[in-house]
Request: fold
Amino acid sequence: MFTLNPKSTSPLVVQIVEGFRDLIQSGNLRPGSKAPSIRQFAHAHGVSVYTVVDAYDRLVALGYFVSRPHSGFFVRKREGVAPQAPGTVPAETANYNFDSMWYLRRVFEARALRMKPGCGWLPGSWLFEEGLRRSLRTLAGENVDLGGYGEPKGFAPLRQLVRDLLAEQEIAVSADQVLLTQGSSQAMDLVARRLVRPGDAVLVDDPGYPNLLFSLRFLGARLIGVPRTPAGYDLAALEALVLEHQPKVFFTQPRLQSPTGSVANLAHLHRVVQLAEQHHFTVVENDIYADLDPEPRPSLASLDQLQRVVYISSFSKTISPNIRVGFLAAPPDLLEDFAQLKMISGLTSSEFSERLAYGALVDGRWRKHLRSLRERLAQAHQRVAQQLENVGFELFCEPKAGMFLWARHPYIQNATELAYKAAEQDILLGPGHLFAPDLQPSPWFRFNVAFTEEPQVLAFLKSQRQAA
Reply:
């Protein structure tokens, strides 16, 4: 096949990528051929499994390999795709398809791992379990018609309640401008499929929300990363990117952003709205952590009043992720398009789940639960920030709210390699490349403060610092 030179100045990962690239481009490894398994290659060449994983990841991202669950890696047919420089990711992401499911199953959604400092949800004991149980008991005692499919836009009383909740945030909408969805992920997918076409320039947070990035890559969008700062956005970079690329949409998460935890200040929000108006692009505001924010802050939607902003949120983070109830609010014409797409792809969302969520939200203890949850998260933030700093990590910012801290260690250059080592110790980490629009290796990690305090997690992080 090819040989590796451990004494070369070229990293082993790059040598593996170049070796397979040369075999594929020369025709010695034809489309459809199966590549050696990760463990087979590592054993045959005397290298670490993590090194091979990293190389295969890059080959998937570059479009040379495709991953098939339970089958392995295969050479992808690459019609009309110009070869890329080894070790890089194409700037035009429309030129390749990224196998997101492989990442989600192997790295990001590995719920089988016992310790989960890199996950994106809260422990069940932190959620509104009692409220959900009370809602379930109430629903069981009602004479509810479970026949039919329910309303296309969702359970009407819950849409009316969402209207009222948005009014508290100074976002004025009618119930007809609210569409209930199966979590925020379906909401973002509907919006992306309506607004994005292959080749469109789409602005996204950098780092950003992995599920959204995967979805946009599948749609063939050209992802343009807007650098995040502790105060929100790098405004100079944002303005330059808007002028250069003339984007069609900007998908962003101003408040308690995943993965950085950063919050965009009011001046930054105003500037985003101004740029959207001046350059005629739509802003999609993902505000799924609004209920975790102890501060009453303005949103892009409250400043714009849904003229150019589509607003997305969810109850999954605070009631239960299993009931999968989210929503979007949009201008009337767009809302009707989203509702039609929802019907085409899945008819209606679950009225049963929406009734459950409604019962929990009108429970008299709901607001008390939110206050308690916010206080618990604030305390966890303070402790985890100090613990990470004690083992040598540098924090991007300290939001003191929400779920996440974004951190790196000066002695750890590739978070992905450490994430695979952690998995062998039953620990799920959130490596930075998952959140990168260009998929490049990153030294950053996302830490969920609700899961990071376990002694084994901190001991593992400390041991890696000492090993480095």
